[in-house]
Amino acid sequence: MKQKIFASIGAGVIGYSWALKFALAGWTVYAQNRTAASSETCKNRIEESMETLVKNGVLPEEAAKAALDRIHYTTSIQEAVQHADFIQESSREDYKTKHALVKEIEKYAPAEAVIASSTSGLLITEIAKPAIHPERFVGGHPYNPPHLIPLVEITKGDRTADWAVDKAKAVYTSIGSEPVVLNKEALGFICNRLQMALYREVANLVLEGVCSVEDADKAVVFGPGIRWGILGPSAIFELGGGAGGVSGLMNHLGPSIDLWLNDMADWKSFPKQWAQTAQAGVNEEIARRPAEIGNTKESLQAYRDHMLIELLKLHGKL
Ligand SMILES: NC(=O)c1ccc[n+]([C@@H]2O[C@H](COP(=O)([O-])OP(=O)(O)OC[C@H]3O[C@@H](n4cnc5c(N)ncnc54)[C@H](O)[C@@H]3O)[C@@H](O)[C@H]2O)c1
């Protein structure tokens, strides 16, 4: 069988992690950066993340080495994409940069290659505007870091073809990601909207003096958050509703829920003071944590990655 080739264009924070994920799935990978110095940073990030996987018992050392050997670092877009089956663009989040890259990638990419953008919020219709073949452009929005978080939100532009969406879905599934296809374009996709709906109420509760930043974090982590890592909000309510399921729960609690909704924030933007309040609250929270579960930025990140890996193992995703 022909060796599959993946090109990660703009291998920064997100692009390095995509490169790692595809290499772990057995693909030959080209990680492209504009300078040799950025390529070096990318290589270091990949090696560090690989070491974390080995240390956490997810990957035998030989497998890690074989995956590292499948990754090529280049500053040439032509070299990266010329034989690629799947191309993921993770460059700067602006149309000017992405338009220039679209033109450059299409100059060299094979006709059947799908081109996905990691964009966090730009429209695929607009990104693909200068494309000769806009039908093969999709959004493939990951959550950071894509080599650990399985979700990818696939979005279509006005001219995206169904075959490109199907191919992107098949490719992401084959590397162990969990793609969700949006039926139509929506700002913030699915998960950023969900995260911000919750976070708006966190800010409201803290600013209203109901609880501290630390207690709001604790409430999510040891309450609904720990369940959401297993079943989504509707499936959890199906269980919470007993014999009546989610519909029974909504009918039963509906009048009470309406009272809460009426009392909750419905702001269209966050209050100006929130950024500062959140930072002060998080600083206090971190300082109070026992060292073994992370009480500095570095140790928190290591703790998060370790716990993520353990959870992913339970999900059969690592
Ligand atoms: N960081 C996140 O949490 C996150 C999550 C999901 C999606 N994204 C999206 O992923 C993409 C990359 O974000 P990131 O956080 O990895 O950024 P980053 O700054 O770490 O990496 C950006 C990459 O783009 C390259 N680049 C910058 N300017 C360029 C130019 N003019 N021409 C060509 N290449 C250029 C850089 O060399 C770098 O390799 C963005 O579209 C972002 O919205 C980011």
How does CATH name the architecture of the largest domain?
3-Layer(aba) Sandwich
Compressed to H and E, one letter per element, the order equals: EHEHHEHEHEHEEHEHHHHHHH
What separation lies between the terminal Cα atoms?
24 Å
The radius of gyration computed from the alpha-carbon positions, rounded to a whole number of angstroms, is: 22 Å
Ordered list of secondary-structure elements with their pairings:
Elements: E1 5-9, H1 13-24, E2 28-32, H2 36-55, H3 61-69, E3 71-74, H4 77-81, E4 86-89, H5 95-108, E5 114-117, H6 124-127, E6 137-142, E7 151-156, H7 162-174, E8 178-181, H8 191-207, H9 213-222, H10 224-228, H11 233-240, H12 245-263, H13 274-288, H14 297-314
Parallel strand pairs: 1-2, 1-4, 2-3, 4-5, 5-6, 7-8
Antiparallel strand pairs: 6-7
Bound molecules: nicotinamide-adenine-dinucleotide.
Nicotinamide-adenine-dinucleotide binds next to helix 1, helix 5 and strand 6.
Describe the structure.
By secondary structure, the protein is of the alpha/beta class. It folds into 2 domains: 5-181, 3-Layer(aba) Sandwich (Rossmann fold); 191-314, N-(1-d-carboxylethyl)-l-norvaline Dehydrogenase, domain 2 (Orthogonal Bundle), CATH 1.10.1040.10. Helices cover 53% and strands 12% of the residues. The chain contains 14 helices and 8 strands. The protein has helices at 13-24, 36-55, 61-69, 77-81, 95-108, 124-127, 162-174, 191-207, 213-222, 224-228, 233-240, 245-263, 274-288, 297-314; strands spanning 5-9, 28-32, 71-74, 86-89, 114-117, 137-142, 151-156, 178-181. It has an 8-stranded mixed beta sheet. Strand 1 (5-9), helix 1 and strand 2 (28-32) form a beta-alpha-beta unit. Helix 1 crosses helix 2 (36-55) and helix 11 (233-240) packs across helix 12. The two termini are 24 Å apart. The structure holds nicotinamide-adenine-dinucleotide (NAD). Nicotinamide-adenine-dinucleotide binds next to helix 1, helix 5 and strand 6.
